[in-house]
Structures are given as structure tokens and as C-alpha cells.
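Figure 2 data, in text form.
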Amino acid sequence: MEEIDKFNKDNCSCFIMAEAGVNHNGSLNLAKKLIDAAKESGADAVKFQTFKTENLVTKNAEKAEYQKETTTENSQYEMIKKLELSEDNFRELAKYADEKDIIFLSTPFDFESVDLLDEIGVPAFKLGSGELTNFPLLEHVASKGRPVILSTGMATMDEIKEAVKLFEDKTNDLILMHCVTSYPAKIDDINLKVIETLRSTFKLPVGFSDHTLGIEMPIAAVALGSCVIEKHFTLNKNLDGPDHKASLEPADFKKMVLAIRNVEKGMGTGIKELTIEEKEIKKIARKSIVARANIPSETVITEEMLAIKRPGTGIEPKFLKSLIGKTTTSKIKKDDFLRWNLIK
């Protein structure tokens, strides 16, 4: 599909995903509002999470520490069950996103969810860091032949190599996402230089899935060449739920998008050339060789006779030594430019 061209490693436009995730709190209506807000904020895509709770987690699995701080359910199963949307809900959300002209994506966590999203026609699969070593799921996703965006949080380089190898010959479009799996992630732990490490090691486009509280890290990641940015997105950070507090509200998400687009404009072509404005300012800001005092005609020029002053429309100062010992052919007044046609 046309929008997947954004994932091309030579494309200069970063693909920005508003990670709504489970911030709909199990409400279809709230999920639609997240789609509206993501579109208004300038995101290229809005992304949810698709799962069958009974296929994802055991009944007695503990919650992560950040989940214990942000939710009241006794187990991870109970928490996730409240956040589960139906298959029909996802079909409706995909249709709604299409009507709003924003790309619909969702992260699958089980085989049934992969099949559902494939049936819906998502333009790509986004896989979370927790699935990087889940080879059966990765192989099932790869069998669909769609582009894959794979997060690498919690992974060693060897584990990433194994996952990348699994996708070889199965998809031409694999994007790795640098990620630090912590909610919220500490800036000291982000290690953005890993973006270049992944890109040079695997010769693949690399993006950044960010869990910090601010917008600085995604902006910096784009400056380092990230082709995809994923950032958690909520309508209200104070809502109940595991991910709201580590998400951006619409106003801040919009600021991030605008900053990223400005960074992209500022990155340029890499070719050092003068702008139109610089060509004009150059005439004023640079300097020329002028006469320090009146210099008579037929005078041998010495360094003491010369000065270097603005503007820069005469002989450049780098040629000063070339003028020493030359003879003037006409009188040159104080502060007048020396000209090549006035000396011999």
C-alpha cells in the first residue's frame, strides 16, 4: 500500500504512530475519540492492541510494578480482561479510522488476533517487544506477507539477530524499533545511539518506540535517522489504566509531531550550499581589501597601505599577499576597494 512507502529507509518523512494501545479502557466510544484526537494531532497512524485475554496471560500472572501503581485489579488477567475489545469492535474502529483518513494499526498478541488484523487489512503488523522471542507468533505474522515493525526492548543483539533471521525471505519490509521497556522509561536509560547500531548491524530501517514522559527523545531520535516514531497517546493522563500516565495528551502529542516535522525540514540534503539569503548576507558580512589611505597611481603596494573591512564585494582578504609588490595603475582613495583592474 502507498502509505508503507513511508517505511522505506531512504524516505525522509518519519512515520508517526499514536499508540492508543489499551487507553480506551475497554470503551469503543473512547477508542473512537482517540482516533479523532490522533488525527487532529497530526499522527500518520493510530495503533491499538488486539488480544484474547485467555490466550495472552495465565489467570494468576502478577502485574508489573508500574501496573500495580496504576490499576486496582488483583491480577494481570483481571486487568487485561477489562481492556479487551471484541473482534467487531476492531472492525468498526478500522472502518472509522479509514473514514477519518488516518491509518489503522494494532499490535496482535495471539494467533487469532493476527488472523483478525489480516482479515481487516492492516497495512503492517506492529509487534511488541515481549513477542521478540515468540517465534511461533512471529512465524505466523511473517506468513501473512505484510510489512512488520518489530520492537526490540528487553532484547540482546543475539536475540534480535535470531528474530531478524526468521523474517528473512518472508518480507521485504522489516523495520526494527529501538525501545527501552520501562513505564515510564528514564532518559538516562534511553541510549539513542543504539538506533545507529541497529541500522549499521542489520542494514534495515530503524525507528524508536518511546516510553519517556516528554517529547525530547522522539525528536532527537528523528535527528538520528529514525524512520518510525511510536509514542503512547491518551486523552487524559489521569484516567484509570496501566498506560495513561506514561502517555502524551493530544496537545503535547501535537507539539511533538510539529517538532519532528521541523527537524525533518532542518535535516536537509547533506549538500553544503549557500541559501538565497546567505548569498545576500555574504555581501554584507564578509570583508574586502581596501586602501588604508589614499594610494597614488604608479605606487608599489605594501601591506601597510592595505586594510580589511566590510562589505565583502571587493577582493577577498585571502588574496592580500598576492597584492603585495604589485603596482597601482590608477589612484585609489582611502576606503575604496582594490580592484584587479587597478593594479599590475
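Caption note: The first helix runs from residue 28 to 41.
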